Amino acid sequence: MADPFSVRVEVRGYETDTQGHLNQSVYLQYAEHARWSLLRAGGINQSDLLEQGVGPVALETTIRYKRELVAGDEVDVSCAFVWGEGKTFRIEQTIRKADGTVAAELTAVGGLLDLTLRKLISDPQERFRALAGDPDTFGL
Fold it and tell me: Which residues fall within 8 angstroms of residue 102, CB to CB, at 6 or more apart?
């Protein structure tokens, strides 16, 4: 099995809190950055989604903090879609320091929203397959 998609990010000083470690909300921003980077790597741009009248939505996110991150740390943020049946899918992500230490693990439940009906698409897997230039990027 191939390694999951990942993107490197450097922790910036303004992202840290008064204790000097990465603010908890920024972990979500790093995860979101990796998700959009994965979409682009698979051939899906935000404008493509809007043209199709759909948009990804986060329904639930769980973060497990393992090790602190401080300004100057370089991290790799992975992203992998896990498909099942129905209207939702999971996204599994790991934020790992450059030395391999796991700093956080994120699991999200997402869906693909019909922007006109304001309801989830019944088969997001098929819609991603149709939109993607490289469906393998999404495990399809």
Answer: 66, 67, 94, 95, 96
